[in-house]
Amino acid sequence: MASLKEEIKAGIIILTSLILLSGFIILIGGGHFFEKLDKYYVQVMDAAGLEVGAQVKLGGVRIGRVLNISAPSGPGQPITIEIGIKQGRSFIKGQRR
User: Fold this and answer.
1) How far apart, in whole angstroms, are the C-alpha atoms of residue 68 and residue 9?
2) How confident is the model over 58-96, as pLDDT tens digits?
3) 8 Å CB contact between 51 and 66
4) Beta bridge partners of 42
5) Distance CA 40, CA 21 (A)
6) Which of 7, 54, 64, 83 is most enclosed, with most CB atoms within 10 A?
7) Beta carbons of 38 and 89 less than 8 angstroms apart
8) Tell me, what's the pLDDT at 96?
9) Please, are residues 78 and 43 in contact by the beta-carbon 8 Å criterion?
10) 40 beta partners
11) Phi and psi (nearest 5°) for 6?
12) Full-prediction pTM beyond 0.70?
């Protein structure tokens, strides 16, 4: 009976440690789970080398990331790229929020 209680305690300690470790890894890795994004769709003819998760920069400053890349519907059609821009950003010259 005593060994069963020790095993349960050890299991709880290990589970708690794994949860804390996972949380730290997400925080250090810049977790995007809680980031609120405005979605925009861009159509281009060539997106060679672009990957989902790639940074979107404006003037060298990271403002968002690539969320999805959709294949063209046929030859000669544009590729649709879904990008997420940090919510509340304004990009029109002279406009402020």
Assistant:
1) 44
2) 888 888 889 999 989 889 999 999 999 888 766 655 544
3) yes
4) 81
5) 34
6) 64
7) yes
8) 47
9) yes
10) 83
11) -65, -40
12) no
